[in-house]
Amino acid sequence: MTQRKGRMISAITAIGLLLGSGAALSPVSALADAGSYLAARQATMDRSFQDLTAYAARALASDPKNPVLLESVISAHISMGEFDATKGYAALLNQIEPGNQIASMADLTLLARDGDYDGLIDALESGQSISTVVDGLMLAWAHVGQGDMSGALELFDEGTGMGEGFEHFGAYNKALALGLVGDFESALAILTENGVRDARTSVLAKVEILSQLERNGEALAVLNDAFGDGVLDPELEEMRAALSAGDTLPFTVVRSASDGIADVFFAVAAALDGGLDDAYTLLYARIAEALRPDEAAYVLNVASLLERLGNYDLATMAYDSISQDDPAFPIASLGRAGTLRAAGKDEASLEVLRQLTKAYPEMDNVHIALGDALRSAERYEEAVEAYSVVIERHQPPTRALWPLYFTRGTAFERLGEWEKSETDLRQALALEPDQPRVLNYLGYSFLELKTNFDEAMEMIRKAAEARPQDGYITDSLAWGLYRLRRYEEAVEPMERAVELMPVDPIINDHLGDVYWAVGRDREARFQWQRALSFEPEEEEADRIRRKLDVGLDRVLIEEGEEPTRMGSDG
Predict the structure, then answer these.
(1) Residue 226 sits in the same domain as residue 114
(2) How far apart are CA 173 and CA 160, in angstroms?
(3) Domain that holds residue 68
(4) Which of 250, 278, 336, 457 is the most buried (most CB within 10 A)?
(5) pTM, full prediction
(6) Is 458 helix (H, G, I), strand (E, B) or coil?
(7) b or e along 274-296 (b: 16 or more beta carbons within 10 Å of the residue's beta carbon)?
(8) Same domain? 175 vs 81
(9) Domain containing 289 — which CATH number?
(10) Contacts of 155 (CB under 8 A, 6+ apart)
């Protein structure tokens, strides 16, 4: 087995462990303490890094040289940002498996964090490895840290032939290194001529370099071309204001070799995002944060990954670590409100959002976030107030406002204020003609109100043509045919709606009604039973139970409606 293959197997083992793979963990069970092993496995499946470190450490007491358990405890500590806690475990794992990827992540991060560039170079050249991309760029930045720019530039040039998705990493990092040492002309040439992608950091680097070269007008044009000339996030607004005032922006994209290494890990985390399990991507994101803890973008990335993993307490801690003085504080607070809501702490989440609207009354997104949270909590009147703040300040309305008119319209509908709801929904369509979600909502509302059937069906058909794989829209189309008493025509689209949304209680209930209407009573009762199994709202559940008892037509008669079968008494 080659050293490279060994490193790849190590990485795959780590991913398997983070995913809770029985195959990856099976070697442990025969040797380690069974109780601790099983608890560690459950903690892995639950993404509970705190519990994983505790139980894996206990299992190691009976099997101290098990590489899978060592990888698990190191990975968990990295996931929590506890790099100092990895030292002993990583040293032991490196003895057992020289060059192990997870151990290298821990060791190399600590060397870079502490500015030990001699040690970092020695470790990389002696076989410690994370990946081809990361190793080469870390080595180049370590030479920058030593003051060996000529050696560093050669290594950056060697990195220009990296694999798919990383083709421009070498050139981009070379530009940042040149900017760090003040060679702004050379750095700008690379950023503009070498096909470097216009990611946020590369754009900011170009803007700061142009400003350093006393070309603020060009810097402002680059900023506006990349992010638009409307209202930007606080960091970009500060940059734009400084450029407009004629101030020279400092070069801050990287301030040291350690910052350069941090940016490498951040970029790799971005490249991995969505391609591998979030728990594995989190390792790279945590390393970036450890090397540059004052960089809000890195902290926000960590928090977002933790939130997606369902680790809300750690995510909240990450959001809380961003100070009120940081331009990213409002974004962090929005994230914190989201994690609190996801953790079931609705009132705490709403309080965070209310305080944000007071502290940043001019920021549209905080009012919108408050409105969304209130609407989710079924506090529709308050949600309308929050949305209205933004709508009223942007008159006459532009196309960008259609989602707000749509969401406020849905809130009015829930309040029973149909005239206001229809006005908002039609305004949304005026701003974004033929928008499928709005067409479906407005058309379905007409069906429920038993009015404007022709217009409702025209709207729903347009929506269905635009989104044929949308189960809710397909359900609306079938339900419209049912409302028009075209029962046979309704069967096929309603069956398709259930195929698209198989566990939705309302759609299964609707299919039951359609089956009943065409005389397929046994299938109707089966669908109503299925609908009940998917836990509909209690009012709907009571109605379904009544249909199971006496049939649909009797229920319709009791409600003052026409039965599906003329002359039927249920």
Answers:
(1) no
(2) 10
(3) 1-127
(4) 336
(5) 0.79
(6) helix
(7) eeeebbbbbbbbbbbbbbbeebb
(8) no
(9) 1.25.40.10
(10) 136, 139, 140, 143
**DSSP per-residue string spanning 119-132:** HHHHHHHTT--S-H
* Identity of the residue numbered 8: M
In this structure, what token pair is assigned to residue 475? 């359900």
Distances (CA, A) of 70 to 13, 52, 66, 299: 11, 11, 6, 26
Query: Alpha helix (H) ranges present in 99-199?
Result: 101-113, 117-125, 132-146, 149-158, 169-180, 184-193
- For each successive 10 residues of the chain (570 residues), what is the average pLDDT? 35 37 40 67 80 84 86 93 95 92 96 97 94 92 96 86 64 94 95 76 94 96 89 85 96 96 94 87 97 95 95 94 91 94 93 95 94 96 97 95 97 97 98 96 93 95 96 96 95 97 97 97 97 95 97 96 75
- Same domain for 122 and 98? yes
Q: Is residue 402 situated within a structural domain?
A: no
Nearest-angstrom CA–CA distance, 556 and 546? 11
Last residue of a domain, one of 110, 127, 144: 127
Examine the domain organization and report whether 210 and 108 are in the same domain: no
Does one domain contain both 173 and 116? Answer: no
- Are 18 and 85 part of one and the same domain? yes
User: How far from chain centre, in Å, is Cα 363?
Assistant: 22
User: Do 160 and 170 touch, CB atoms closer than 8 A?
Assistant: yes
Candidates 86, 100, 80, 30; CA nearest to 57 is: 86
Which tokens belong to 373? 């949270």
371 in Cβ contact with 355 (< 8 Å):
no
